[in-house]
Amino acid sequence: MKKSVYSLVLMDDVIKAVDKQAYRLGTSRSNLINQILAEHLSCVTPEMRMREIFEQVAELVSSSFRVQEQRSPSLMTVRTALEYKYRPTINYKVELERAPAEYLGTLRVNIRTQSAALIDMFHSFFAYRAKLENAYLSRLGVDSYSCEIGEGSFSRKLINTRILSEEQVGAAIGEYIKDLDRAVKTYFAAPTEFGDNAPLLEKNYRALLEKYII
Q1: How far apart are CA 126 and CA 124, in angstroms?
Q2: Is residue 96 exposed (0-12), middle (13-18) or buried (19+ Cβ within 10 Å)?
Q3: Distance between CA 173 and CA 179 in Å, rounded?
Q4: CA 69, 50, 29: angle at the middle one, nearest 5?
Q5: How far apart are CA 199 and CA 130, in angstroms?
Q6: H-type helices in the chain, by residue range?
Q7: Rounded CA gap, 167 and 60, in Å?
Q8: Considering just the CA atoms, what is the radius of gyration of the chain in Å?
Q9: Which of 156, 165, 171, 180 can pair with 147 through a Cys bridge, CB separation 3.0 to 4.6 Å?
Q10: 8 A C-beta contact, residue 166 and residue 53
Q11: pLDDT tens track for 144-203
């Protein structure tokens, strides 16, 4: 949304209250005032759009993930633990674009562990998953799949089809995280038997794509 600079005359006490609230929320004075005015006048801001998306994500995943508090309106992190020795934690972080174009934002997944063997397993799974996702999206005519595998991390761009409402975008992201987490846990529970479980997991992913391309 386009922004311009305007001069306003406001009471000092109002500005002090705004600054205090802006600091608590991790935002700027101008951004908070913009949000307050937009909500009062029923205008939709990027923050309101992102909040609606994240509320839907939280509703879908809160029963099986821990939803972390975020200071930024564009970020949301949920985490879960693997049923594996030492119960390592996996974080799923969604960062939304304020003005989405080709992509809605980015999903980043990372595993908290010092085990080299566990990190190798993590890399092996996501190499498989990235290949799977790219293949199925390509069949649907989507050629903008973009991902990266790092040291104990995986990130991918969330595709913007431009046809989903904010509520549907939240549902798509939430369902994708749940499907991805189910596949991760299936792999770590029995990596040597994963070949037997893969067809069912692929079927689940295809079913997700029938509802949402994300």
Answers
A1: 6
A2: buried
A3: 10
A4: 75
A5: 16
A6: 12-25, 29-40, 46-61, 116-139, 166-189, 194-211
A7: 11
A8: 20
A9: 156
A10: yes
A11: 999 999 999 999 999 999 999 999 999 999 999 999 999 999 998 888 888 888 999 999
The residue length of the chain stands at 214
The single-letter code of the amino acid at 31 is N
Q: Using an 8 Å Cβ cutoff, are 210 and 175 in contact?
A: no
CA distance 126 to 132: 9
**For position 192, what pLDDT does the model report?**
83
Provide the 10 A C-beta neighbour count for residue 154.
Answer: 23
3-state DSSP assignment of residue 47: helix
Residue 156 Ramachandran class (φ > 0 left, ψ -120 to 50 alpha, else beta): beta
- pTM listed for this prediction: 0.82
> What's the rounded mean pLDDT across residues 77-88?
86
